Amino acid sequence: MSRVRTRPTRDDTREKLFEAAARVFEEQGIGGASIEAIAAAAGFTRGAFYSNFKSKDELIIAMLEDHVEQSMRRIRDLLERHKSLADFIDALKTMDRSQQDPLGRSPLLHMEMILFVARAEKRRPELAKRLRARKKLVTDIIETTARNSGRTTILNPTWAGALVLALEDGFRLHRLIDPETTPPDSFFRAIGDLQRAMGISSA
């Protein structure tokens, strides 16, 4: 009889390394975390780490890329199921963060990793690529919800998408630093104000 394959797939290994790296980064800091510590936390050898990533920087870039891809997939799925802007925003509000990837569950770590990569000028194009993908997604959402409501927007959708993304990142940072004066619904309240300014119906 043939033996059942029990060795983890490449995707399984990467996912375990992502989860382990998130834990180690939060405990030891991104700069202080070693490849050995990350591999050990994932239950792998140093060799297993290097069979997937050439360096810690490459691991971080992969984690950021995975986060953006998963976030975009979840949001596009929500947009497909919730056609009106009001329903879509309600679905966003109730999204289960515990089911997300490590960076989705920890906004602070996500921001720390972005800043860590941004310190290396040669790595910034990697971040810019993902930022543009996020902007494109938000622009698509604005155009789709406006079209579904039968209205046209006052603001250029691309510029409106940049505004929405800046609001999201800004309120996330403010919430981390000063939660007392930044309510959890600050971003969505701002979206409501922006929505009215753009003349998009919520129906």
Automatic annotation (TrEMBL):
Keywords, ordered alphabetically: DNA-binding
Superkingdom classification of source: Bacteria
GO molecular function: DNA-binding transcription factor activity; transcription cis-regulatory region binding
InterPro entries: Homeodomain-like_sf, HTH-type_TetR-like_transc_reg, HTH_TetR, Tet_transcr_reg_TetR-rel_C_sf
Any Pfam family: TetR_N
Positions of the HTH tetR-type domain: 11-71
Chain residues forming the annotated DNA-binding region: 34-53
UniProt keyword ATP-binding present: no
Protein name (database record): Transcriptional regulator
Source taxonomy: Bacteria, Pseudomonadati, Pseudomonadota, Alphaproteobacteria, Hyphomicrobiales
